[in-house]
Design a protein that fits this description.
single chain; alpha/beta; Rossmann fold; 2 domains; six-stranded parallel beta sheet; 18 helices; 43% helix; 17% strand
Length: 407
């Protein structure tokens, strides 16, 4: 079957998208219909993945995205471009990423009678309430979470299958919308591709400064809602020169000033090292001397939808994890016995858990071994994507296989 994958972004940054495309491409031809802000080829073949890039200036894309409930340019852009590709390559099913792509996908379903699988990367209405940019003009006037809350059931009930990040979020949707067929809600966590991750160098020699001390490591976007500011506050209060923090990731611009202020204070004490960016291939090297890996995200409905991919990467690297008590990651810690969790918003509990880890290195080693075993045996793409592949095998596609030619 030829599967079309609708992605409202460039086909570069999101490992979830590329991992899924690769898994589907083991059994099907995958046509990724995505954006091009001007720096990439309009068409490219990567094995059994065929990437169709639609040129649009990034500023224009942001404008039509924000205005989609007032002017239909966003939906029509995707409808007309996708229609052309679907017809040419006889695509038999569509895999749409994120709730907002359900709108153009359902338009295509109406006219072309294609089955739609909707991949929910997050609880999108809740995410809009949590994002800082949605509370500032013009977004706060044009792009409201309530609009998506009101639309959510209609969009979910119109698709033929859904993919969610965790069993917790699957249960949440089934309880919120009992009319949905729970058998069509599939679970695919943000798990790693074992072969790809284990091709990364185990250590590149670049983190010798971490040989001394008890190092916590955080890898990912840096901002208040990610919980890293709370960790920095805990470090400041602990005042233990042995306990140090390595932070790697781009700053959320809305929290930039607060982060840099805290960073300056802790850097003077030698407690924090910060890198704005490192390639994910360096993650095993960053974790080489690490004592404890962190996912301290703030507990809210958005973060309760799933577990960040870095958590499974930490586990695969054999590191004990310390996470906030967002339910999906709490469940991973309890199931796999691979770390500890703290009560979100409770700074004393966070400090207690850090100190416990500091005083129990042998227990951390055991937890790290448990986590690595869990990823190798269960939490990887080969295992977790089986239900999605089976679902596609049972779909009734429209269209037949066709020879592929570069447009």
């Amino acid at each position: 079957m030829n599967i079309g994958m609708l992605l409202d972004n460039e086909f570069t940054a999101d490992p979830r998208v590329s991992n899924e495309a690769k898994m589907l491409a083991m059994h099907h031809q995958v046509h990724v219909i995505c954006l091009n802000y001007g720096e990439q080829k309009s068409f490219e073949q990567q094995g059994n993945i065929f990437v169709h890039r639609l040129f649009i200036p990034e500023k224009v894309k942001k404008i039509i995205f924000l205005l989609q409930f007032y002017l239909p340019f966003f939906q029509w852009f995707w409808f007309f471009h996708s229609w052309r590709i679907i017809r040419k390559y006889k695509i038999g099913a569509l895999h749409a990423h994120d709730l907002y792509m359900a709108r153009p996908a359902l338009m295509l379903k109406k006219f072309l009678h294609l089955p739609i699988v909707l991949d929910l990367h997050e609880n999108y209405p809740a995410a809009l309430e949590a994002y800082t940019w949605t509370h500032k003009p013009p977004a706060k006037w044009l792009f409201k979470a309530d609009t998506w809350k009101n639309l959510e059931f209609r969009l979910l009930s119109g698709v033929d299958g859904m993919i969610v990040l965790s069993n917790h979020y699957r249960k949440y949707l089934a309880q919120k919308y009992p009319q949905l067929d729970e058998n069509k809600i599939l679970i695919y966590p943000n798990v790693p591709v074992l072969k790809e991750f284990e091709r990364f160098p185990t250590y590149n020699g670049g983190y010798e400064f971490m040989k001394q001390g008890f190092w916590l490591v955080y890898f990912g976007v840096v901002g208040r809602r990610r919980g890293i500011l709370a960790v920095m506050e805990a470090l400041a209060q602990l005042s233990n020169p042995e306990i140090k923090l390595l932070v790697i990731g781009p700053l959320d611009k809305h929290d930039r000033e607060e982060f840099l202020s805290k960073l300056g204070e802790l850097q003077e004490k030698g407690s924090v090292v910060y890198f704005p960016w490192k390639d994910v291939s360096e993650l095993p090297s960053m974790l080489h001397f690490c004592s404890l890996a962190l996912s301290p995200i703030i507990k809210n409905p958005q973060h309760e939808s799933g577990v960040a991919n870095k958590v499974f990467q930490y586990m695969l690297a054999g590191k004990a994890i310390l996470v906030s008590d967002c339910q999906p990651q709490l469940e991973i810690v309890e199931e796999c016995q691979c770390g500890l969790y703290f009560r979100d918003g409770d700074l004393d509990d966070l400090m207690d858990k850090i100190l416990w880890c500091y005083h129990h290195p042998e227990e951390l080693k055991r937890m790290g071994e448990n986590g690595r075993k869990a990823v190798i045996e269960k939490y990887n793409t080969d295992i977790q994507y089986k239900s999605v592949l089976t679902f596609y095998q049972n779909l009734q596609p429209r269209g037949q296989q066709t020879d592929l030619r570069t447009p």
